[in-house]
Amino acid sequence: MRIIDVHCYPNTEEWIACQQPYVDALAKYWNRSWKSKSEDDVIKDFADGGIEALLVALDLETTIATPPCSNDFVAGMRNRHPDRIIQAWAAVDPWKGEKALVEAKHAIQDLMMLGFHFHPIIGRFAVNDRRLYPLFELINEMRVPVMIDVGTTGMGAGMPGGMGSRIRHAHPSAIDDLAADFPNLTIIAAHPGWPWVDEMTAVALHKGNVFWELSGWAPKYFPQQLKADIRGRLKDKIMFGSDYPSIPHARLLREWGELGYATDVMERVFHGNAERVLRL
What we know:
By secondary structure, this protein is α/β, with parallel strands linked by helices. It has one domain: TIM Barrel. The chain contains 13 helices and eight strands. Helix 6 packs parallel to helix 8. The two termini are 15 Å apart.
């Protein structure tokens, strides 16, 4: 069965560096060190997992003054390994104003990237903030999708004040507003959305332009109602993602298999919905 992983990070030195000081804090919180890998080792991980990856860029320069894991870098990895990285999500720091608009055009028109990923909590914004709407208006005009993190994050967790981040920025209501204001914009919610799983379910069901990938969580911990909805009313909405390198692909695929879904449901989750919605 084809497996498309819609949410993978480069896991190279450039990616680790762009997230400091969050990386050190997360290692302390999880009691697990984060070490970068070479590009070849990352590709080997994808090959060992049998997955075709959508790679994710990241720009937090305004928030924490680190150099981005840039769109050019991520697009370069894609171009060098087209058998394992089939596309890439661009990133722009929405607080950069006009520079963000210029970079967004570059990512799509020059680099031919898939769309854009947003991490509201560590970017310190909500996607329904009207100050950011010029960026979303441009993205909407370019007819490319967005992937937006929903629910809490390990970044800043356990630290005083959460290192200044607010988990409310990633509430499903922000996606609901964005979807209503831009009905032609394809939106992928990223991660299960805890503690607002039911709210995210409601948004995904209500908004025809909203879909959902469930990366970053071990499937055995999915809430029971979500497990039921994946085989039922959400079966045309759900996509597979890993949040690589957060959880090994071997574990994710094993636990997805242990959920006991019929083959047609697994086909939709692992590749069918992504192929249809993202035109892969």
